[in-house]
Amino acid sequence: MARGKRGLLAVAVTVVCAVTVLAAPGTAFASAPAGPADPSPAPSASASATPAPTTAPAPVPDAELEKVRAQLDGLYHDAAVATDAYNAAEEKTKKQSVQLARLEKRTDTARKKLAELKDQAGAAARAQYRDSGMPPMARFLLSDNPEHFADGAGTLLNGARATKKLIAETDRVERELKRDTDDAEARWKKLERDRKDKAAAQKTIQGKIKDAEQLESRLEKKEKERLAELERQAARKAQTAWLETGVLKKQAEAAEAASTSAEAKATSAGARAVAFATAQLGKPYVWGAEGPDSYDCSGLTSQAWADAGTPIPRTSQEQWKQLPHVDVTEMRPGDLVIYFADATHVGMYVGDGKIIHAPRPGRTVTIAGAGTMPILGVVRPDA
Fold it and tell me: How are strands ordered across the β-sheet holding 336-339?
């Protein structure tokens, strides 16, 4: 009996254990016939799933990078155009401010002078009132003392002259004051227009630079490196094509004909300008900057020549317009090479077919081939 109870208990325990195992979550059911027990645990669904292989993005073809380079060149060129407009407006506001300061000084002097003249006129009127309001001419005619005739006549003549001079001087000062006041008002209006032009140019510059930075930020590191290499290749190609025109050979022939060295020598002022520009190598480009810590392209050239004792226009466009032009085959160190059809970039020739220039935002003052960009012409500050 005891053995029968123990047998029933063993069967009950076996059934409970089986039910517990079957009810456990994640239990696998096999449809194959029962066989020997597999000692290894059944793999879960998550463990058996194979992760999908990750594929690296396809590299951007060079043709696409060339398009990006062209876009960047266009954006930075537009920024350079706006920078020249900004610099021109800045120069105008400086000049207008100086002129306005002079006008304010002149109008202040004229106002004081006018006040003095009016005081003199008032004093004359008060004197006439003290003399019972009788004009000097009437008193002279009514005088019955012959001895005072000559003195009275002289006094009358001097008084008339003084009155006439007082009236004329008052009239002149009033006209001068009005002219200067009108001039000042016109200059204030122009100053406001120049400030608006300056603000608009600044907004354009910032927008173009932001667009260029966003375009570059979409590139991977390797793509940026390849883009930089494409830029270097394009620069080398352009410089080689320029040199193959024989420009340096023509320079040497022109120098030889003039009984100078193989390349025309810089003047003392040109050498100082080149030395100044060379000392700025490595400093960052910042639009509108004139040093000493950063420069834009024309800020560098104008400051270099100012240091050499020869002030020149601030912008590359005005440098092209106002400075004497020389043939590219005759350029010497210190001359300025103007680039692009709209004269929106400038570099300083340093000899051996090279320039020093401040290229664009994100770059530093550097040495480059003179033919790496489309040359508009050459100007000479110390012609």
Answer: 325-326, 375-379, 336-339, 345-351, 354-357, 366-369
Burial of 291 (0-12, 13-18, 19+ CB in 10 A): middle
The predicted model scores a pTM of 0.65
Give the number of other Cβ atoms within 10 Å of residue 269's Cβ: 16
- 173-229 pLDDT, tens digit per residue, is 777 777 777 777 787 788 788 888 888 988 999 999 999 989 888 888 899 899 899
Question: Which of 17, 77, 148, 297 is flagged as catalytic?
Answer: 297
pLDDT band at 127 (very low <50, low <70, confident <90, very high): low
297 carries an active-site annotation: yes
| Cis peptide bond upstream of 53, omega within 30 | no
Q: What is the mean pLDDT of residues 115-138?
A: 63
Residue 52 neighbours by CB distance under 10 Å = 6
Q: Is the dihedral of CA 348, 349, 350, 353 positive or negative?
A: positive
357 is catalytic: yes
Q: What are the CA-CA distances from residue 367 to residues 176, 280, 355 (Å)?
A: 55, 11, 6
Residue with tokens 């016109």: 186
> Is 325 one of the catalytic residues?
no
pLDDT in tens, 251-267: 888 777 765 554 678 89
- Mean pLDDT computed over every residue of the chain: 78
